Fold this protein.
Amino acid sequence: MNINYKTTLAATVKFVFIISLAAVTACAPLIPAQAAGPLKIYAFGDSITYGFAPTASRSLTNSDSFRFLLTQMLAEAGIDARIVNGGVPGETIEDANARFEKVFLENPDVAIVMFGTNDCVALESGRSKVSKENYMKTLESFVSRLKEKNIAVILMTPPPLPTNNIKILTNRHLMPYVFAARETAIKNKVDLVDNYMNFNDAAEDKNLMRFFLPDAIHPNAEGHKLIAEGLFEIFNDAHSHYNRSAGNKNTAVKRQADKSEDTEKYYINFAAGNNYIESAKNNNCRPGVLTDEIIKPSGFSETYFTSDNEEFPKWIIIDLGGIRKIKGVRIYNTSSLDARNVSVFYAREFGDYNLIGEDLFTKSSTPLDFKFNKTVTARYIKVAIEDSYGNKNKVSLAEIEVYGTR
């Protein structure tokens, strides 16, 4: 699940991207032209970034690490890349802050940042090593300082924990940091690889610990492959800021026009699989349920729902991953018909919302459709729920779809 990349590139960028958009694909592969030198990528993180092996008997810093695998994938796409290992086992984000300036010594084009697993570890007091507030403040500082240096940023959420047998390290402790990373990426308009979601999706029909996280914390080779694939999608996404030349001050970055745009229009659900943040959420529902394309949930884990004690209005903001051409929004309620009055907004810039429309759920079997008279361009869709049919403040939804044309 990926969000956004970089609005400007350093003036010393060593390569040129030419994107060819295929008529039936969501994004196009990158083909560098006249590459003059390697793309420098700095991977900044803890033991997962370092490549600590699940068995602790050997390191994955070489052929099995996501860094090595990503380098291979980029090479196959014609991109010469060098990835610096900036992972330190055991570090929290506050520990890493003390060495952050070393990132600039490498003069990278791109920085990949992933923390959270060590930060969420519960102390004897029951509190985490690093509070969610300090985690988010430091993460936003990293993003700001990197962008000031014209360094592209990719944030990553940590992988999930496949067991709650380790009392000091559970998904209950980890989830606030996952949401903080997602929210930071959306607000700062940088790319996100949602490892937490990607691992859970990949393990839907498998045992998460057996196949990807054998020591319940560190990914094995298959897990690192998942991380590498998520990162490669960023470089291979024609809609990421890294590849879009619109408004890019670096004239060396080019994008080939999509000549088929007028004749190859078709409707796409741009919300599918994309990241979102919410004002309230019950921890028992699975992350990403509002954009997983399951419109008839079979249980709580497949339903978005909030706790009873949150005030209205409640809201969800979906990041479409880039500026999209939007024709309409469709919202599905659950069989319990918890949500009542709904308002839908769109925006090109985070926080600058325009109302699409308001409507009222009268039947759980009938979705609400919000349509434009003409196509609009938007990156963010906000759905606000103003009240519910029940006596409590809890509301639920099954799915949100955002339709548009390429």
Notes: The first helix runs from residue 47 to 50. The two ends are 19 Å apart (CA to CA). Residues 1-35, 241-266 have pLDDT under 50 and may be disordered. The longest strand covers residues 314-332.
